[in-house]
Amino acid sequence: MNKSVLMAVAIVIVMAVWMASGMRGETTHAPVEEASSEDQSLMKVKVKNSSANKVQQFVRVQGHVEAKRTIEIKVEIDGRVAALTANEGQRLQAGDKLLQISPDYRSAQLAEARALLKQRKSDLAASLKLKKRGLQSESRVFADQAAVQAAGAQLARVQHELRETRVTAPFDGVLNKRMVELGDYMQAGDVLGELVDDGTVKVTGQVPQHSVGRLEENQPVDVVLSNGQEMTGELSFISPVADSVTRSYRVEVQIPNPQHLRIIGLSATLLLPAGEELGHLLPGSVLGLNEAGNLQVKLVNDKNRVVDVVVEIIRTDTTGFWLTGLDKEIRIITIGQDFVATGEEVEPISDIDLTIKHVSNVSVQED
User: Fold this and answer.
1) What is the DSSP string of 27-76?
2) Which of 17, 205, 245, 289 has the lowest tally of Cβ within 10 angstroms?
3) In this model, does residue 363 exceed pLDDT 50?
4) How many Cβ atoms are within 10 Å of 214's Cβ, its own excluded?
5) Under 8 Å CB-to-CB from 49, ≥6 apart: which residues?
6) Least confident range of 4-18, 70-84, 131-145, 175-189
């Protein structure tokens, strides 16, 4: 044979050997790929065991601070202002003098009324003596008795007017406004000033009709003022009648203010206790939305399958949200919930499992 024939035969033999080896390789690896598809691992998710606890519910409403009581002080008699003894902003005790009205002719009227009463009493005494002797009619005695009563009433009226020349504070408070000056002439019913009792303040607000039934009087209430100050008071009043326009109920929270802080008129947020409910404190990262737009969380059931549960927020906390709508004991998915579907079987891993695995690895390395 020549060299060309030998070279062609060698090439054919080499190609046959190469093709045979390729077929054997495919035959060998085909079962491995099939076994791999059958042995796919489950999706791992991190879970946390959570137990329900009682949590205080609150109704949050907006309101404002008012004085415990505010009145306009009015004069009861006519007269000229003879003296002013209190200035705007001055703090007063009950009975402290605000102003003095000139008594004018009332002193003379007092003397006249006393003299007239004395005379009427003398006339009555004489009539009674004459009646006993049969020299006086009974009607005359009745007339003298009426005259005594009229004279007594006149004296009482003059004495009252003299007392009212001295206008005093009816309760402890601060004179917020003074509307008269020395020498002003006042008539009965004129306003001389405004007295504000700020020793205790009340925070008022309007509670929606669907929430008022959960409130109870005499409960402690936290209040946050618009200036950032936090205070605690007592729910002292819940209106028995809804507002005719808003259908909400007025509430009052009384707060002691012994330091007389200038907080009257400020806006405030009231956190009204509204009973207790079982809930879970969970981080906000576990919350999601379902197709209907409702809040939901994903749990792992006892068969290690994913379950969606709709929840509601009871209230917020510094570490998360208090949620209701869940069973008392749950396994919540904290990491990986976005990568698993409802009903899917998963491999749940907890912090305890990770700790055990870490300890096992350390032990093997030491051995």
Assistant:
1) HHHHHHHHHHHHTPPPEEEEEEEEE-EEEEEEEEEEEEEEEEEEEEEE-S
2) 245
3) no
4) 14
5) 329, 330, 331, 350
6) 4-18
Looking at the domain that runs over 44-55+278-366, which CATH code has it been given? 2.40.420.20
Give Cα 330 distance to the centre of its chain.
Answer: 32
Structure tokens at 359: 């300890």
pLDDT in tens, 79-103: 999 999 999 999 999 999 999 999 9
Give the strand pairing for 91-92 and 173-178.
antiparallel
Q: Higher model confidence: residue 16 or residue 55?
A: 55
Q: Is 23 buried (19+), middle (13-18) or exposed (0-12) by CB count in 10 A?
A: exposed
Q: How far apart are CA 51 and CA 97, in angstroms?
A: 65
pLDDT, residue 35, reads 40
Contact indicator for 251, 237 with CB cutoff of 8 Å: yes
User: With respect to CATH, is domain 59-66+198-275 assigned 2.40.30.170?
Assistant: yes
Helix ranges, the chain (H): 3-38, 106-132, 138-163, 351-366
DSSP 221-264: EEEEETTS-EEEEEEEEE-SS--TTT--EEEEEEEE-TT--S-T
Report the C-alpha gap between 124 and 118 in whole angstroms.
10
